[in-house]
Amino acid sequence: MTEDPLVGEWSKEDRDPCSSSYPDELELHAGGRYTGRMRPGAAEHPRWDVGTYERVERGMLAISTFTDEVVRYAFTLDDDRLTFSDEQGCTFAYRRRLRD
């Protein structure tokens, strides 16, 4: 079985105001679990804090939010850049963090 290419640690690249509620740091775990964190001192709680994710169809992930609602997001993975688009049209990207 090959490892899911989404699994890993990701840092948000975008600082667009529409993406401010999404976590600055995102860790996607094998088995469909995730952890999201804001930078220290951030005023907002991340929309994605801890929960589950799954591929529901090509180019779509279903991710549980901090309210436990499961929302579908369009995504693309291009090398070490993971880009999401939400239902409101906000597009934001994460860069894979390399382990030391």
Compile the SSE list and pairings:
Blueprint lengths: L7 E5 L12 E5 L3 E5 L12 E8 L2 E5 L5 E9 L2 E5 L5 E6 L4
Work out the helix count. Answer: 0
Q: Secondary-structure element order, as H and E?
A: EEEEEEEE
Distance between the termini: 25 Å
CATH hierarchy, class: Mainly Beta
CATH architecture: Beta Barrel
Shape: globular
Largest sheet: 8 strands, antiparallel, barrel
Structural class: mainly beta
How much helix is in the residues? under 10%
Total of domains: 1
- Report the mean per-residue pLDDT as an integer: 92
Query: What Rg do the Cα atoms give?
Result: 13 Å
Q: What percentage of the residues does DSSP assign to strands (E)?
A: over 45%
Strand line-up across the major sheet: 1-2-3-4-5-6-7-8
Looking at the structure, the CATH topology is Lipocalin
The parts where pLDDT drops under 50 for at least 5 residues are none
Keywords, please?
mainly beta, Lipocalin, 8 strands
Describe the structure.
- The chain has 100 residues and is mainly β.
- The protein has a single domain (8-96), classed as Lipocalin (Beta Barrel).
- Helix content is 0%, strand content 48%.
- The chain is built from no helices and 8 strands.
- An 8-stranded antiparallel barrel has the order 1-2-3-4-5-6-7-8.
Brief characterization of the structure:
This protein has a single domain (8-96), classed as Lipocalin. It has no helices and eight strands. It has strands at residues 8-12, 25-29, 33-37, 50-57, 60-64, 70-78, 81-85, 91-96.
